[in-house]
Amino acid sequence: MISRRVQGFTESVIREMTRVNNLYGGVNLAQGMPNFPPPRELIQAAHKALDGDFHQYAITWGAPRLREAVAAKYGKFYGMDADPEQNVTVCCGSTETMMSTLLAVLNPGDQVIIFEPFYENYGPGCIISGAEPVFVPLDPPDFGFDPDRLRAAVTPRTRAIVFNSPNNPTGKVFNRRELRVIADLCLSHDLLAITDEIYEHIVFDGEGHTPIATLPGMAERTVTISGISKSYSVTGWRIGYAVAAPEITLGIRRAHDFVTVGAPHPLQEAAVTALTLPDSYYVWLREMYQAKRDLLLGLVESAGFIAYHPKGAYYILTEAAHLLERFNCTDDTAFAMYLVKKIGVATVPGSSFYAHPELGRT
Ligand SMILES: Cc1ncc(COP(=O)(O)O)c(C=O)c1O
């Protein structure tokens, strides 16, 4: 009864772990969901928007005030020159922004390079668009990539490189040298860079985030995707956005129009308040998450895991081969089930971040 396209999609492992966790009443470390409320100003702004006249569809590609706020924020933080009319599209979360982007720029048969391990949505996103994902490994412990391997992955069918920095699940933050390698490849082979920067404000140890769009020549060939979910603890609001060149923006808006029509209008209005919070908010956010990272790293290591230290985002990837053996678990999924059912902690099996599951088994 269902299409070939979706037959291969399984339930998101992350959301499955949340479901199992709810059955067993454990601590959920599986889903990227802040467990504290958003800033008060933001909640007040949402109330105000609901009391106002924002109950009907906004302009499909985003309420004007929000697009202006997005453009102004990219200017302020990264010196990017985004025009709200030409370059900004608002969608339902960065998830839909990525989907609409892939639909907008890919033709059936195109290839898309994705770094592995990767956030699980990118694979189905390519498949829905009719494109073929091609994987290039990020190697532990630092999760760097081999530039030659990346170059070798480019074929005449390659259309885009999709990457996520700060990265889920590795905590890697792509450095300038790595961004340069990707940019050079995009420039020399006429490729697009499609970047998921949803964790842009969660970067540790005094390091900053650099959008690849700010590298010379890249503004025209980058789709910079982000949203308010993670930076302001409002994953349920479903507001994300893309900044891209005018022609690509037109394509994203066309796809978005037929996928969701638009993001919730009152919450778009309230999101303006998020994007105009003072700089001190981002300092607080970073320091708060860094303290949590340090606390959890200590706990994870003292429990016997070998943890890769994240430089950004809010995930810790671990090596647990010795623990799988000790607890008689055949693979990572069995071990994750053991942890959630017997210990009361939901994690995500590593293999779900790999197209080649054997690479994530431990
Ligand atoms: C890398 C990455 N991108 C996107 C998302 C989802 O973002 P949004 O809520 O804006 O759709 C997540 C959520 O976990 C994520 O980890």
User: How many helical elements?
Assistant: 13
Largest sheet: 7 strands, mixed
Ligand names: pyridoxal-5'-phosphate
Poorly predicted segments? none
Structural class: alpha/beta
Tell me roughly what share of residues is in helical segments: 40-55%
Strand fraction equals 5-15%
**Form type:** globular
Q: Could you say how many structural domains there are in total?
A: 2
Give a short synopsis of this structure.
With 362 residues, the chain is α/β, with parallel strands linked by helices. The protein is 41% helix and 13% strand.
How does this structure look, described?
It is a single chain. This protein has about 350 residues and is α/β, with parallel strands linked by helices. It has 2 domains: about 5-40 and about 280-360, Aspartate Aminotransferase, domain 1 (Alpha-Beta Complex), CATH 3.90.1150; about 55-275, Aspartate Aminotransferase, domain 2 (3-Layer(aba) Sandwich), CATH 3.40.640. It is built from 13 helices and 11 strands. A 7-stranded mixed beta sheet has the order 2-8-7-6-5-3-4, sandwiched between helices. Strand 3, helix 6 and strand 4 (about 130-135) form a beta-alpha-beta unit. Helix 3 packs antiparallel against helix 10 and helix 5 (about 95-105) packs across helix 9. The two termini are about 35 Å apart. About 45% of the residues are buried. The model has no long low-confidence stretch (mean pLDDT about 95). Bound molecules: pyridoxal-5'-phosphate (PLP). Pyridoxal-5'-phosphate (PLP) binds near residues 32, 119, 198 and 227.
